[in-house]
């Protein structure tokens, strides 16, 4: 892990800007998509009484995997990522941070279904690379825009910039975050929303509502603590933030303020919930109100009413809240599981305030609500509106692969460390030689530590039995696909005798699913998106300790579909920087020195994807 240094607070105002990757021309991209292909019969415009329709020609039943509105807009954003060494955090504690445009959370990216999003990312830090992943975005034919350094690109070096340019073919709520180490835990994170049709009517869109664990120490140092077996469980979060706000865990007198969100009496409100944590999962509930769930991750579902929702790291829910209670203030609570199986916080009662218009703007809610008993179990019972049915006969032979997940305790020079493995391999990516660059070079000699699986078949269903052989759960995230969750169960899955326990007719579909401890998870997806796609646990500590695997999908088609030569300028810039950086090259073991710390061995710099 790369640490924050005192010098990192100074912006590179006098540095020469290196354009790391030429921006693809949006005109070239847009021209082929100007022909309007309606997604159904004309149905009117999207409004409070007609949310199932979108711009008259598309609707909630339009199959977005095959038909999208034309790219009416290019949504352009400039991100400047900087170090701040003495940032006054939202709960009153000063700490080092990494910020986008000097704000936390980062700017909200907004687009309409079918638009292009163009983000110019400027790395104004001195000693850290970066890359930005657009979580949950399918990136059809655009794997090179996925933002996973060491997989689809090299990191953006200090003083350089890179333009990401991608088509949003889904709609709903997501987020973006740095994929460089656990950097997003230092603040390089923000919401991303794509407006489109909805499964139920609502009056007011309240926008994204990001909830995340928060630490007073840097994520880099916390990881070094978390990976040592002698330190026991991972560090507790110092707080839980709601839209970047909360009081200090020891009381408001120490700093900070509760987030307040206003409801209009008698109206239905769309709230876009996001768990952008590094480690903590939680159950969300609003005293006196229910949630009508209309989307999980980026998959519209038939409306389901819930009194609470478990949210694993990386998951999102679009919910409708009806303001049908007495005018007043109500607690929005985040409840963590009591046994520290999916995170723990020093804030014992994390909460925000939902206020009705007309209520006191200073008074606290008086009703804490019925105490919730949180577990680490994921939500079930959602039915996607766009159905996907898999022939059960397809679950056979080479279409089914097994991915055992295990925990080992090797000694890496400073004592035993936790090392998560998939297929008995802790993933170890190469920052200076990503897999897509291997594809560009027609080179198949990537190291075994890349933990890469070749998936050559086209437009076929493939299935993965993920076998968790340890007691802790994992939120499993797959890039490039919304996958089908065919089944989850305890113990060991037997392909020959347990097929009847799987659901092949329109199972839950999403991009993050919670896999329980000592259990099996079976997922499936169609190989309709050539590229290299990372699958990993979204707990930052776990993926940094090795819990990840890569799928190289339809390798022979990738070079024809995307301009891989655009990888080279950024990778060349990174390789030049790496030769002179005091924190590189990357080491396979040991400790790497960080300025201002007492050092006995070098700090480990391996497996830095998060």
Automatic annotation (TrEMBL):
* EC number annotated for this UniProt entry: 1.10.3.2
From which residue to which does the signal peptide run? 1-20
Q: Does the entry feature the keyword Signal, yes or no?
A: yes
Instruction: Give the keywords, sorted.
Output: Copper, Glycoprotein, Lignin degradation, Metal-binding, Oxidoreductase, Signal
Q: Which cofactor does it need?
A: Cu cation
Q: Which Gene3D superfamilies match?
A: Cupredoxins - blue copper proteins
Q: Which reaction does it catalyse?
A: 4 hydroquinone + O2 = 4 benzosemiquinone + 2 H2O
In terms of CDD domains, this protein maps to: CuRO_1_MaLCC_like, CuRO_2_MaLCC_like, CuRO_3_MaLCC_like
Domain named Plastocyanin-like is located at 89-197, 209-359, 438-556
Which SUPFAM superfamilies does the record cross-reference, listed alphabetically?
Answer: Cupredoxins (SSF49503)
Q: Which Pfam families match?
A: Cu-oxidase (PF00394), Cu-oxidase_2 (PF07731), Cu-oxidase_3 (PF07732)
* Family of this protein: Belongs to the multicopper oxidase family.
Quote the protein name from its UniProt record.
laccase
């Amino acid at each position: 892990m790369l640490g924050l240094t005192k010098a990192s607070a100074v912006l590179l105002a006098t540095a020469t800007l290196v354009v790391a990757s030429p921006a693809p021309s949006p005109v070239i991209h847009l021209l082929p998509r100007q022909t309007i292909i309606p997604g159904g019969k004309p149905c009117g415009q999207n409004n409070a009484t007609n949310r199932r329709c979108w711009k008259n020609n598309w609707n909630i039943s339009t199959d977005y995997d095959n038909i999208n509105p034309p790219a009416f807009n290019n949504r352009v954003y400039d991100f400047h990522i900087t170090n701040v060494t003495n940032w006054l955090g939202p709960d009153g504690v000063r700490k080092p941070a990494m910020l986008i445009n000097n704000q936390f959370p980062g700017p909200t990216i907004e687009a309409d279904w079918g638009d292009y999003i163009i983000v110019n990312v400027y790395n104004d830090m001195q000693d850290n690379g970066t890359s930005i992943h657009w979580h949950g975005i399918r990136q059809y034919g655009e794997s090179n825009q996925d933002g996973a350094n060491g997989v689809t690109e090299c990191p953006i070096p200090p003083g350089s910039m890179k333009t990401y340019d991608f088509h949003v073919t889904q709609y709903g709520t997501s987020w973006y975050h740095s994929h460089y180490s656990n950097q997003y835990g230092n603040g390089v994170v923000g919401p991303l929303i794509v407006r489109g049709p909805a499964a139920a009517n609502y009056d007011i869109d309240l926008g994204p509502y990001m909830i995340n664990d928060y630490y007073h120490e840097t994520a880099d140092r916390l990881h070094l603590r978390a990976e040592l077996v002698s330190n026991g469980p991972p560090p507790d979060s110092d707080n839980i933030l709601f839209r970047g706000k909360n009081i200090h865990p020891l009381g408001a007198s120490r700093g900070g303020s509760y987030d307040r969100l206003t409801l209009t009496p008698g109206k239905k409100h769309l709230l876009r919930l996001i768990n952008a944590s590094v480690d903590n999962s939680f159950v969300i509930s609003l005293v006196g109100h229910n949630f009508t769930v209309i989307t999980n991750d980026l998959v519209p579902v038939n409306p389901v009413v819930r009194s609470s929702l478990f949210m694993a790291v990386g998951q999102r829910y679009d919910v409708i809240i009806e303001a049908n209670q007495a005018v007043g203030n109500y607690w929005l609570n985040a409840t963590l599981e009591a046994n520290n199986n999916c995170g723990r916080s020093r804030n014992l009662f994390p909460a925000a305030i939902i206020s009705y218009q007309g209520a006191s703007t200073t008074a606290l809610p008086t009703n804490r609500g019925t105490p919730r008993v949180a577990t680490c179990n994921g939500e079930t019972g959602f039915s996607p509106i766009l159905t996907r049915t898999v022939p059960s006969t397809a679950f056979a032979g080479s279409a089914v692969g097994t991915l055992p997940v295990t925990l080992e305790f090797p000694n890496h020079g400073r004592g035993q460390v936790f090392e998560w493995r998939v297929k008995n391999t802790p993933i170890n990516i190469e920052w200076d030689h990503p897999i897509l660059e291997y594809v560009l070079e027609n080179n198949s000699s990537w190291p075994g530590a890349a933990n890469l699986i070749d998936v050559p078949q086209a437009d076929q269903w493939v299935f993965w039995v993920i076998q968790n052989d340890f007691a802790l759960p994992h939120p499993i995230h797959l890039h490039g696909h919304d996958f089908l969750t065919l089944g989850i169960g305890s113990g060991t899955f037997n392909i020959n005798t347990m097929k009847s326990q799987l659901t092949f007719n329109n199972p839950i579909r999403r991009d993050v699913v919670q896999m329980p401890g000592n259990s099996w998870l079976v997922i499936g997806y169609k190989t309709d998106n050539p590229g290299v796609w990372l699958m990993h646990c979204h707990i930052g500590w776990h993926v940094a300790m090795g819990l990840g695997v890569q799928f190289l999908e339809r390798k022979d088609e990738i070079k024809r579909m995307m301009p891989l030569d655009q990888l080279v300028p950024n990778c060349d810039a990174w390789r030049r920087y790496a030769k002179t950086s005091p924190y590189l090259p990357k080491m396979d073991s040991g400790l790497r020195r960080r300025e201002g710390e007492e050092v006995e061995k070098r700090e480990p710099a391996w497996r830095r994807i998060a």
